[in-house]
Amino acid sequence: MKYFVQLCRIAVGVLFIISGLIKLNDPLGFSFKLEEYFSPAVLDLPFLEPYALAIALFVVILEVILGVTLLLGYQIRLTLWTLLGTILFFTFLTFYSAYFNKVTDCGCFGDAVKLTPWESFSKDLILLVLILILIWGRKYLKPLGSAGFRLGTTIVALLACVWFGNHVLNHLPVVDFRPYHVGANIMEGMATPEDAPRAVYEYDWKFNIDGTEKIITTLGDYPDVDGEFVGLEGTREIQAGYEPPIHDFTVEYNGIDMASAILQRRNLLLVVAYDLNKSQAEAFEAVKILTDSALAMGYSVAGLSASSAEETGNLKQRYGLIFPFYFTDMTALKTIVRSNPGVLKLQEGTIVQKLHYNDLDALSLPKLSDSKKYPQALKSYLDSIMVLDQKYRANFSPETWGKQYEIDQQNIVAIDSILGQYGYPGTSLVGSGTDKAAWYVIQHSERIDEFLPQIQVAAETGELPYRLYAMMLDRSLMGQGLPQKYGTQGRSYFMNTPEEINLIWPIENPENVNALRAAAGFDQTVEEYVVDLFGEGTEYKSYTLEQVGEIEAKQN
Cα separation of 548 and 538, whole Å? Predict the structure, then answer.
C-alpha cells in the first residue's frame, strides 16, 4: 500500500506543479478566465472582478508550492488539507461549468491543453480521490532530506514563482500556447480544410400519424412517413465539427470586415489595445514614436481595439497618433497579445514579432526597398489598368468613345475581382499613386453606389486621399438627383439656342461648401474650381434642384 500512496503522491505533486507553472506562464490569461467565472452570467460575483489578477497569481503560485511541499514532505498535514480545500474548490467550479454549460474551458492548463467542462470535472474528481488516498495514507508520506533542506527548497520555489510571475506580466508569456504565436499565419488559422469533419446534428420531427403524435429522428433529412407534419421539435449536436484555431478574428470599420484586406499587407504593424480604459496610457507615447518612424519607412500601421470610435478618436487626438483604429472583439484581442497595448509585426498575415509595451525598443524595423514594400505583380497590374483607363480620355471623340467604353467594362471587372480578394488596394498595399487606380475605374463606371462604402472606408483610414471619396460621393448624389456636398460635379446644358449653360450641380450647403472642400483636401474654392472646370469667364452661381429642373425642361 505504501508504494501505491507514493505513486499517488508523485502524481498529485507533479500534476499540481505542471498545472501551476503553465498558468503562471500566463497569469493574465488565467485572470481573464476568473473574470468570466465572476461575471453575473456565471457565479454573479462582480465585486471580485477587479481582484482577478491578484487572485490568479495567488492560486497558481499556491498550486506550484503545494506540489513542491507534497513531494518534499514539508508541513505535510497542512499541505494535504490545503490540497483538499483547493481541489474541492476546483471541483465545484468545473462541475458548475459543466452542468450549467457556463464556461466552456476551465483554464486548468491555460492554453496548453484544452479540456471540455466534463473532462475538467472528471480530472478534478480523480485528483480528489488521489488526495483522499494521501490523507488516509499520510503515515506513508516520509519527508525528504533535512528540515532546513525542505524549508530552503520551498522558499526558493516561492521566490522563483514570484519572480517568474512578475517577469511575464511585465513582458509576455515565455511560451505562447495560443494560436496567435510568433510564426503563425492568422489567415491560415482561420481556414477550414476541405476534408475537415463537419458537425452532425439530429433533428426531431413531430408527425400526427393515425391520430397519434410521434417523433421521428433523422440526421437532417425530411422523414419519409405517412402522416401530418406538426413541427420540428428540436435539434442537437451529436458530433462536433472542425473548428479552426482562430474563429473569432474580425477587423471591422463601419460594419465592414477588413481582416482579409489588412492581413494581406506586407510589413504591417498592429497596435492592439483591447480596452482603452484599462490601457497603460503612458505607453502610447512610445507607440507614437515607434509608429511615426515605421510609417515614414514605408510600413503599414493599424490599431485594433474593442473600444468605441469616440474613445479611439480621443486617444489619437491626445497622443497625435496618425494611424487608423479598427474594431475587433475584445476576447480575440485579449488572446492575441497579453499586453494592453501591445504591438505585433506581421508579414502577409504571418506574425513575425510580438511585443509588450515595455519592450517596444526591441522591435525590428529594417529599411524597406520598393520591392519589399509592395507586391510588385499587383502594383504593376493596377498601374497598367490606370493607363488603360486614360487611354482615349485625353482626346475624346465619337470614334474613340466606343473603344474607351469597352476598356472601362473590362477594367471594372478586374477591379471588382481585386477588391474581392484584397479589399481596396490602397496606399498601404500598393503605394501612393497606384492607390488611385481602382478609384479612377470605379469613378468612370456605372457601379459607383455599389463600391462607395469601400471607397469611404479607404479614405477615412488613410488608404486613399479623402478628396477622391468626396468627388465620388458628389457624383453618386448627382446621379440620384440629390444635392452634392463638396461642389465637385458640374453639368453643361445646350439649349435650343446657341446659349450654353455650364453650372455646378446644386450643393446641399453652399454657404459652407468652401470650408468642407478645404477639410476634404481641396486646394481651390468652388469659385476657383468652376473656372478650371468650364474655362475663363465662368462664374459660380448657386443653383437649386428646382432651377436645374427648369433648365432641363427647357432643354428637352
Answer: 17
Cα atoms in the Cβ-side hemisphere of radius 13 Å centred on 294: 29
48-53: Cβ within 8 A, 24+ apart: 53/27, 53/28
Name residue 231's beta-bridge partners.
206
Task: Give the model confidence (pLDDT) of 36-45 as tens digits.
Answer: 888 888 888 8
Task: Write down the residue that cell numbers 477591379 correspond to.
Answer: 415
Please list the alpha-helical segments (H only) found in 101-231: 117-136, 147-170, 186-190
Which amino acid is located at 40 in the chain? P
Q: Distance between CA atoms of 247 and 264, rounded to whole angstroms?
A: 18
- What are the b/e assignments for 513-548, b being 16+ CB within 10 Å? bbebbeebebeeebeebbeebbeeebebeebeeeeb
Q: What pLDDT does 79 receive?
A: 93
What is the C-alpha to C-alpha distance for residues 12 and 213, in angstroms, rounded to an integer? Answer: 54
SS (H, E, C) 11-35: HHHHHHHHHHHHHHCCHHHHHHHHH
Nine cell digits for residue 88: 474541492
Question: CA torsion, points 474, 475, 480, 484, in degrees to nearest 10?
Answer: 20
- CA dihedral of residues 286, 292, 298, 303 (deg, nearest 10): 70
Strand-pair partners of 217: 204
Any idea which residue has 508569456 for its cell? 173
- 128-184 pLDDT, tens digit per residue, is 999 999 999 888 889 998 999 999 999 999 999 999 999 999 999 999 999 999 999
**Residue of 308, 309, 315, 251 lying closest to 283 (CA atoms):** 315
Bridge-based pairing of strands 500-504 and 342-347 is: unpaired
End-to-end alpha carbon distance in the chain = 107
**What are the angstrom distances between the C-alpha of 80 and each of 132, 136, 159?**
9, 10, 22
